[in-house]
Each structure stands twice: as structure tokens, then as C-alpha cells.
Fold S-layer homology domain-containing protein.
Amino acid sequence: MFKLKTVLVLALAALLVLSSFTPALATIDTSLIDKGLEKFNELSPSTQKEAIDLLKTYFKSSGTLEVLKQDLPSALKIVLGDDYEAQLEDKGLSVSRLKSQVDELKSWSYEDRMAIIDKIQSGDSEGIADLVEKYKNIEAPSDPSGGSGTAGSSTSSPASEKEQETDTGQEPTPAAAFTDITNHWAKTQIQYIAEKGIIQGKASGIFAPEDSVTRAEFTAMMVRLLQPEVSEETVIPFLDVAETDWFYETVKTAYAANLAKGKGDLFDPEGKITREEMTVLVARAAALKGKSVSIDTAEIDQLLLPFKDKEEISDWAKTETAVALKLGLVRGTTAELFQPKANATRAEAAVIIYNLYGVLNGESDTMTE
């Protein structure tokens, strides 16, 4: 019970931060940030550490954020007292608004959700305000259990899905609005594939090309491109994918199409996808659409030979990596390095999706990384 109360105190600190933006004032209310930081600083160092660890669990995914919403009234009472509703009203807030702020957290990147915890821990109020400002105009993700843009839909092409979720479950941003790719090496590929509705932004005007890609995000890109059909009777075995998660239908579709196999009974949706994992997925996608190539052991060895780190490629990934290389879907980070265990960036994901789109549509002007 003590640990629960501890994490709820810290959870409220984060929630007060997120609720500090009030549309009517269009400003950041730093008094709420200060209130959250004050409560955190009252904890002992060991309790602070426990609270940080537990809060990171709360912030891990959409499903765990739903649990946080359920615990919110208890947190409010612990931090503000029995008259918490009146105190919130004085700030123009309510319990329901705070719960909506939890929903808005689902539109944040995983990296930024972790970043705000770090900033609370270090007392960086300016950094906290900057993060809140970054997302203040982003709408919360739509209900993943229904509505338009679900992963299993096969009634329209990616380009015509006007209400698809973004790579993190929010509303899409037009490619032309991305302000952070102007001078980026992958600008052409990012814009091309974003205009197809296959890969999308993380926030208003933000593509974040150098951010890592989670397994759920890349799976969403693949499903948008391929649009495989899925039976409603499909049951996924992953314990870490809940029906309330924005990526539930995406993972279900990918699993049914044999694109995503998970890691035993876990999918690890928030885990960062590696270059070899991403490469295997696009090779499988090409095979699913009848665009793969035959390859024998000798050719596998020859295709991997240029890479000094070829032995770092997992045995289960070598054949499909060689296939992807032969198809022109991917290449090394340099002429001599493949870096199979490196975390893929969103720019790399855009390029490999661009290349796959070209292969599937008979276009030869692929632009590999």
C-alpha cells in the first residue's frame, strides 16, 4: 500500500504538470508544476527511486495509462487532501479534465513520456514546461476499439484513410507540415511515403526523424502499407497487448498475417525495434505479397560478406536479411557495417518502407539508406 501511495503522489506530480496548460489562458501555469515538484521533493531519496520506477511502469503504454486513470482520485486525495475537487476548481480544473490529460499522454512519444519523468526527478521546471508546450495542441488518440482507421480495414487504400492513427495513435500530420526534416537526408523518402498515409508524424509538425522506432510503431507502418485482412476470431497470445492499447488492432492484424511473431507470450510493443528486426519484417512483407526471391546458403554468405559485423546478425535473421539486401530493401549503415543490433530510427524506417513500397508496386527507383 505504501508503494502505491508513493507512486500516486509522483503520478499526480506529472498530471499536474500536464494539466498546467489551460486553453482559456493559453499559458503554462507554473504554480501547478511547482506543486508537483514540491510533493516529489518531500519524499526520501529511496522512496523517490521507488516512485520513479513505478511511475515508469504507469507511463509504459496506453494500457498502463488506463490503470493510472483509475487510480487518479486516490492520488488527488493523497496530495491535495479531501477538498481536492475544490482546489482543482480554483485552478479551472476537474477530475475528468485530469483524466483527459492522461489520455493525451497516449499521444506523446515513449521517449518524451520517459523524459518528463526524468525532468520531474531533476526538478527541471523549464524542461517540463517545454515538453508540455510541445504537445499542448495535440488531440488525444481516438478510441482504438472502433471508428475509422482501424488496422484491419480493407475497404480503402492507405492514401484514402483520412482518420488513420499516427505512428503513436494520434491524428495524422500532413507531410508538408513537418518542420524538422527540411535539411534531413531522408526528406524525399519521408515526404513521399507520408503522403501515402503509410508513415506519419508524432506530433503537430513533428516527424522526429532521429527518434527510435518502437515495435508497435513500425508494425503500424507495415499494416498501413499492406492492409492484410484479419479474421475477427483471431486471438493474439501477447500478455502485454491490451484491447485498450492504440496498437491492439495493428498487432492483431500483423500476427494474423504472420508478419509479427512476438517474443514468446510478449510482443514488447514499446521496445525499440532493431535494424535486423525491421529488416526481417520487410522481407516477410515482400514474401506475403509474392515479391520475395529464392536464395541459397552460398548466396546468403556472399550477400553478407561485405559486412565486418555479419556475425552479429542473429541466425534467425540471416536469410531474410540477405533477401532484403538482394531486393534492395535495405543496405548497411556503411559499406562495411550493417549494425543489426542498433535501434532503427524513424528516418531509417521511412526509407525501408519507401523501398518496400517501390518493390511491391514495381517501381525500381528505391533509395536505400
Observations:
- Residues 2-135 form one domain.
- Confidence is low (pLDDT under 50) at residues 20-26, 138-166, 168-175, 364-368.
- The beta strands are 21-22, 27-28.
